[in-house]
Amino acid sequence: MHAPRVAGSCTGKRAAGQAARAATKGPPVFRPSALAPARPVAVVLAAASLLLTGCKIENASGSADGGSGPSATSSQGPAAGPSRSGPLITEPAAGFSPVYQMIRHARRSVDVTMYEFADTTAEHALAAAARRGVRVRVLLDQREKHVNSATFSYLAAHRVRVAWSSTRFRYTHQKTVVTDDSRAIIMTANLTSRYYADTRDFLVVDDSPADVSAIEKVFSADFAGRPVRPGDGRDLVWSPTGSQRQLLALISGARHSLRIYSEEMADTTVDDALISAARRGVRVRVCAENIDGAYDSAFTRLTSAGVRISYFSSSHGFYIHGKVIEADYGTRRARAFIGSENFSSTSLNDNRELGLITSNHKVLSSLARTFAADFRAGKRWQ
């Protein structure tokens, strides 16, 4: 067993509110509950101050659409919806068994890149894999040592090769597991088990050989501290090389609708693209986080252009951490981005991040159903 973890950046916003926002990293949002007691592609899916990860579900008004104004105070559990639909795994309903089983079934290799890692079940599975002769390598974000050090020490003592991320990146906010050079699981979630029960996240397992090969090439270079230019494989979205361009293209190419999950609205270039979409007649809806009114001005600017926003701002309750852009659902052009990238310049231009863009119908359909329920549960910004 490990010593109790100390809450860190990704988990700190819910604990510290906005007081500690310094050196925006783009990925996570401090989660106030963190300082409280612990609580194809063949795909299986799931400011300067510290802007860290989250998005949470609550319904202050009791109505389907929520009320108006800049704050919400009550909370509720996650909206009902599918936990798994074809290649998409939706948290928190599904749990993290798919990740554990993937590790347990590995025969030759397991490579993990993780921003924050504090999950003893996953740690034990990795140690067991190493004991049975599997090559296990884990890359952890070096700026999050206050969260990751206990995991680093445990794994290093159990035959696992562990390394801290390169200082070339502001943060290594990527969240992936690759096994046997043949399957990758790309996540919006960190492996921090104390938040599994109340966090909306998505996991995608990618069996595309081109994608897995590209992910492994980058992992090996990042693990060794060597520079590398990531390949896009079949549909990958990497930071810091090309994510802003790819996400802007997805937004700018939308003709009918955009559904956005975002805990951060801290990139004016992305905001401008959403405003442009709304003004050309695209129905733009955003499910967002806004603890302590961090994004009041961004929300006001967006809604004045016709963007509809449902937001969550209580320090307790269900927390939306997924990062998703779904474009033109229900048409032949439908596609969705799912990944670790937040809407901030740091996340898109300075961090190591990874996501993908998929047109898988089951993934898109499940995302649409889940988003509809979450959007109804939030508080409307008006």
Structural class: alpha/beta
Shape descriptor: globular
Radius of gyration: 19 Å
Ranges with pLDDT <50 over ≥5 residues? Answer: 1-75
- List the total number of helices: 10
Distance between the termini: 48 Å
**In total, how many beta strands?**
22
Largest sheet: 8 strands, mixed
Q: Which bin fits the share of residues in helices?
A: 25-40%
Mean pLDDT across every amino acid position: 83
Q: Looking across the biggest beta sheet, what order are the strands in?
A: 12-21-19-18-13-15-16-22
Strand content: 15-25%
Describe this structure in words.
This protein is of the alpha/beta class. Helix content is 29%, strand content 22%. The protein has an 8-stranded mixed β-sheet, with helices on both faces. The chain has a 6-stranded mixed β-sheet with strand order 6-5-3-7-8-11, sandwiched between helices. β15, α8 and β16 form a beta-alpha-beta unit. α2 packs parallel to α3 and α6 runs parallel beside α7. It is globular and about 55 Å long.
